[in-house]
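Support case: user asked for a sample of complex input and structure output to validate their parser. Sending the pair below.
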Amino acid sequence: MNETVISAKNLSLTFQTNDGPVHALKDINLDINKGDFVSFIGPSGCGKTTFLRCMADLEAPTGGSITVNGMSAAEARMKRAYGYVFQAAGLYPWRTIGGNIRLPLEIMGYDKAEQAKRVANVLELVELAGFEKKFPWQLSGGMQQRASIARALAFDADILLMDEPFGALDEIVRDHLNEQLLKLWARTEKTIGFVTHSIPEAVFLSTRIVVMSPRPGRIADVIESTLPRDRTLDIRESQEFIDIAHRVREGLRAGHAYD
Amino acid sequence: MTKLWHTAGPVLSILLVLALLWYGAAIALNAAWAKDKASRIDKTLSFSELVADTMSQEKPLLPAPHQVVKEIYETTVLKKITSKRSLVWHSWITLSATLLGFAFGTVLGVLLAVGIVYSRAMDMSVMPWVITSQTIPILAVAPMIIVVLNAVGVSGLLPKAFISMYLSFFPVVVGMVKGLRAPDQMQLDQMRTWSAPKATSFWKLRLPSSMPYLFASLKIGIAASLVGAIVGELPTGAVAGLGARLLAGSYYGQTIQIWSALICAAVLAASLVALIGMIERITLRRMGMVQ
C-alpha cells in the first residue's frame, strides 16, 4: 500500500506582486501514498490551497518539482488523474443535478449508456438518488456540495483533491458530510488531499495531517494519525482524538499561526 | 376580477391622465390658429366653439388623440394593405429592414464579442472603435451609407438594414462581452481540471452563462434597429416606410399623419421588445434559469 502517488520535492512558488514577491510556498517536501487521506491545515496565507492547486496544475511552481502518478502535474491533468472539489459547489444553474454530473463525462467522451450508469452510481454514493432531474436551486447548500463531490467522483480518477469543500456549510451539515466522506473514501479507496482550516475536521478525517504555516508558506509538522481507518463521529470524544488535535494545535503555534 | 383590476387599473389610470393632458395641450396649442381664423371673419368664439375648433383642425399644431386614432384606423383597417397609403404596408417596409438589420447586428455583435473575449489583440483594439462608432450621430452617417452603397449598386432593403445593424450591434457586443466573461475563475479552473478544450468551455459554459445578458442586449438592440430603419428611410427621398411617412408629413405640414406614424412606430417597437421578452422567458425557463 506504500506506493507514492503525489510527490513534492523542494517545491516553491513565488508570486510577483506590486508590493514585491510573495513566497506562497517555500521548499515543500511531501510524499502522499496511495489510499491516504491527507489534510492540509493552517491559517490563511499558509499556502495550503496553493499547494493543492500545484498538484492540480492550476498553479505553476517557480521552483522544485511535483509529480502526480509519476508524471508531471500537467501531464496528470491532461490524463484526468484527479477530481477536484472547490469551495463552492459551482453547479451550472441551467443543468439538472444529473446533467451537472454528466458534464465531465460528456467532455471526456464517455458514451451515453456509460454516462447514465455512472451518474446513477455516484448519486447513490453521495445519497442523492432520486434528485437527478432536480435543478441546483431546488437543493440545499449541503446537497449541492454533495452533488459537486459526485461530479468529481464520476470519472475514473484515483485522486480526489478537495479545497475546503465544506467551508461554507454549517457545523451540523458539515459533521454529517464528514461522516459520509469517510464512508465514501472507504468504498472507493481513493487517495484524498483535503484542505481545511478546521482542526476537528482535519483530525476526524485524515490518516495524515500536514500542518502548514505562513510567510513563507511551509510545512510545520506532519502528523500520522493513530486513529483506526473506520471511525464514527463518537471518536471525537476519545482521548486519542484530543491528543492528536492538541498536537495539531502545537504545530500551528510553533509555526506562529496564532501570532 | 379584482386581480385583473390590480394589474389593469394603474395602467388605465396613467393612460387616462396622459389622454387628458394631451387634450389640454391640444386646446392650448391650437387655440391661436382657431382665434386667428375667427378674427379674419370678424367673429368671436365662445369657449365651446373654441374647443370644438381646436379638436377638428386639418393641420393642427398638436392633433387631438381622437384625430390620430381616426387617422390610424383609416390607414390600417380601411385601406387595402397593398395600398401605398396603408400604414400597415409602410410598417412592413420598415419592419423588414429592422428585422434584417437586427439579425445582421446580432450576428456581428456576437462574433465581435467572441473575438474580444478570446483574443487579447482584439480585446485591446476593437472596443474603442466600437464605442467611437456610436458617438457619431447616425443622422450624419446614414446618408453616406445610402449614397455609397447605391454607388456600388446596392439599394432598397439592404442599405437600411446596414444602418439598423450599425445601431443594433453595439448593445449586443457590450452585453455579450460581459456575458461571456460571466463565468468566474472557479468555473474556468474547473473546466481546466477536466482538461476541457477551449471550444467545449465556450459551448458548455460561456455561451449558456451569457444568455441572460444576450437577451437584455437584444431588447435594446431591436428597438435601436427600428430607429435605424426609420432614419435610413429619411434620405432615400421618402418613398416608403414609416420614416417616409414622417418626412412626407413634415413636408406638407400633415401633423396628424406624422403623429400616427410616430405612434405606429412606438407600438411596433413595444411589440418587438415584448416579443424578445417572451422568447427570453421561454428560453430561460427551458434552461432552468428562472424558477
